[in-house]
């Protein structure tokens, strides 16, 4: 009887865990759909700004196209997660950074799960990450403020590192790629000085390119979390079925024992 009660207790725990994981899976699925729509729109914005930068390239200061080899150093921006239960999402990003980056360069860690994966003595800026796509723009504003504080008055490079569907990728966002040769073309007419307009578009491009990367990171994070939850739910389902079989077998043995006792008393 005590063994059967123990099994029933474990079955109740499995039911509770299944309910919690089911709710978390629904949340991840909803976020996945929401961020997917926003990411598509954000990619279109980045493409439009990239075209505008190409048209305005003649008005941009030469420093914005500086050779990365001549900058004071790259700032590495690592996108992690706020919440766990997303497989090796954060570990993959950290492993990639350790294998590719100069450890003396400044690093920005975005996402609380990354903060604990690096020693406190390592020089790094730790920033809160995004819970979902809605607070992603606020996170980008925090990142840009941290970059402005770090760069000071010197030229800098910016490398962003995210976990993609196929693995971890790095993107150079700053300095800008060299402008295409548009010999013979005319610069666009602008109300404001061309250099001022071009610099403003470059700043908008950096903001929206970062936002597009963060949205992709959030989508992949939620996809990996969804996979983890479905695996855990399948494990709970199989475990629950096995426990039910054990409980039924014990109950049958108890019934047989009771019948034998009744027959023996006659």
From TrEMBL:
Entries under InterPro entries matching the protein: ATP_synth_F1_ATPase_gsu (IPR035968), ATP_synth_F1_gsu (IPR000131)
Domain of life the protein comes from: Bacteria
Broad class of where this protein is predominantly found: membrane
Membrane topology: Peripheral membrane protein
Entry's localization field: Membrane
Keyword set, alphabetical order: ATP synthesis, CF(1), Coiled coil, Hydrogen ion transport, Ion transport, Membrane, Transport
Family according to the record: Belongs to the ATPase gamma chain family.
Role of this protein: Produces ATP from ADP in the presence of a proton gradient across the membrane. The gamma chain is believed to be important in regulating ATPase activity and the flow of protons through the CF(0) complex.
Protein name (Swiss-Prot/TrEMBL): F0F1 ATP synthase subunit gamma
Species of provenance: Methylomonas rapida
The organism's taxonomic lineage, starting at the top: Bacteria, Pseudomonadati, Pseudomonadota, Gammaproteobacteria, Methylococcales
